[in-house]
Every structure is written in C-alpha cells, then in structure tokens.
Amino acid sequence: TKLESQFRLTYAMILNVARAEDLKVEDVLARSFAEFHAQKTVGNRESRLRHAVISLTRARELISKEASRDPINWTRAVVCSRAAKQLEELGERANEAIVKSRGFREALGSPGRVVLVKDDKGGF
User: Residue 123 CB: number of other CB atoms within 10 A?
Assistant: First the structure.
C-alpha cells in the first residue's frame, strides 16, 4: 500500500523551524512523504520524456535521410500515405452515417438482431 502523508506546512511550523538552528524549512519539506513521492514521480517523468525526445530525434533523422535518398519517391509515398489516411477517415464517416440512418434501423427490424458485416477479404 502507498503511504500518504498528512503533513501540512503551516506558518507556525515555519517559525519554529526558523528558530531551530539545525533545521531549514527546505529540509523539513524534503523529508515529508508527499515530497518524496512527488520527486520520485518527477524523476520517472523526466526519464520517459528523455526517451521520447531521443526516439523523436531518431525518427526525424531517419525521415530526413530517406527523403534525401529519393526525393521524388519519398514525396509520392507521403502523398499516398495522406490519401490512405483520408480514405480511412471517409470510410469511418460513411459507416457512422449508415448505422445512424433511418433505413438501416428499419432494415434491422426487431431489437436484438445481430448484423454481421464482411469485408471484401471475407473477414468480419
């Protein structure tokens, strides 16, 4: 189980810590459980961010390298990729429109009917 701190720094606590010569307010905060967990989480996030930045940099380098090798075919590939994405989005919109249509609902008939839709490859 995770230990949750109920430590709350108040003005009186700060004054008491300020009177003690051995302690600093920063030390008291750093020793609290909540601060410990917060710092631990920050470390994990920084590590994940660092890995994500490295991956993104590598991807950009590879894209640049491939684009410079064969610019004409690279441009064609980019255009085809964008067109494929647009076709996929249009297909999804068409499916939504069909399912929401009155004719489709009437064709289903009574509630509880199951409709199986096959693609051109024979899959469901």
Answer: 7
